[in-house]
Amino acid sequence: MSEIADVAVIGGGPGGYVAAIRCAQLGLSTVCIDAWKNARGRASLGGTCLNVGCIPSKALLESSEQYFQVKHKISAHGIQVENATVDVPAMIARKDKIVTTFTTGIASLFKKNKVKSMLGTGRLLKRTDKDDTWRVEVNDGEHKQTIQARYVIIATGSVPRQLPMIDIDNEKILDNVGALDLPEAPAHLGVIGAGVIGLEMGSVWRRLGSEVTVLEAMPDFLTAADDQIAKEAKKIFSKEPGLAIHTGIEIESIKTSKKSVSVQYRDADGNGQKLEVDKLIVAIGRVPNTADLGADESDLDLDERGFIAVDEYCQTNLTNVYAVGDVVRGPMLAHKASEEGVAVAEAIAAREKGHQLKSTEPVNFDTIPWVIYTAPEIAWVGKTEQALKKAGVAYKVGQFPFIANGRARAMNATSGFIKVIADADTDRILGIHMLGPHVSELISEAVMAMEFAASSEDIASIVHAHPSLSEVLHEASLDTNKRALHI
User: Fold this and answer.
1) Active-site amino acid positions
2) Which parts of the sequence bind FAD (predicted)?
3) With a threshold of 0.85, does the pTM exceed it?
């Protein structure tokens, strides 16, 4: 055996690298195995999130929003800018520099915390009855070696779901990787899928000048979000930045030529339609990355959708083998993966080293925030109104619009509102839903309130700074008891 460790982590994304660092902090010798390489063929930690997901997409969203503001909105502030142009390669270079800074930063954190980093794919091997350790085969494409560890944490993440009728070439047909590296804004861009990735990537290129058409199979828009939020968001996005969103569609065929991509589909009324675009982004969700993990050989249980089966503490059916993040049940969110990674690391340390840690609790899925970084942003935590209706839970609602908020007016960002849902009898907060400026930041107050079982009255009783966007949450909380002051 070339490497022996207390813990082997397979995957270096937000779940894996955080788990590895926390294990090391708790005195466990830790190896993190990750196959991601950058354009120069060097190891690039951070997984999909950091390399081709959360971070680079937000960099482009910010750049495109700055351009859109200068081009279309900054004149409202009395600022005149003539002949503003966009340099897409410079935007891409800025995005790449941010990614490099953070991936090398994780490598530095590994060095600081004495985490051993290994480049390659990890495959779990079958354990013999006589052995109390696990073996993981590491394959870097040229060499194979086997490491030995008492504990294994699988954090291999997810990969884009494929359309069976077409292959992704990242030239004409793009996934999230190709969508982040276009050298110029295509004249007409098609997007299949109106989820987080589809909306964010569609927004980037629409702001930079592309005509964008979004095709969504679901009959309704953003079904995961609160209905009222989703309807208002669709109305805003259709006007500005001007996404053409079609729901309830059925793709029949996709064909490429040298110049374009042709999509044949049926609309919500069953009528045949044709969409001709220069580029097509396929963003129909993600699936767990469990291929070549060695599940059959090691007897690791997978469910019918390919997710690793775990209990509420992320323990698999195999002794001392855990799994976290996109590869297990629950929302496919980077922050969820990181929290699971920390929880598993602390559980292992408590067992292995006898650390006096607080009792490990499972990650509370009811208080995990969701964010879509469009403009305006969408964020929520807890139950939607439609879910509560279906469950027969009695509730009350308060809401307040950003247009009545002084800070939002000053920012010229008045679209959207905040909605607070509380139990009709106890006033305990059941869900908070936001559409508006910087709600990705405002949602943290909502998460904390729900984590500590706050009531709407608790938020209503807290003094919020004036003028600030947070006052919208304050007023919405007041409104649950019909006490809003400024509307």
Assistant:
1) 466
2) 58, 122, 156-158, 326, 332-335
3) yes
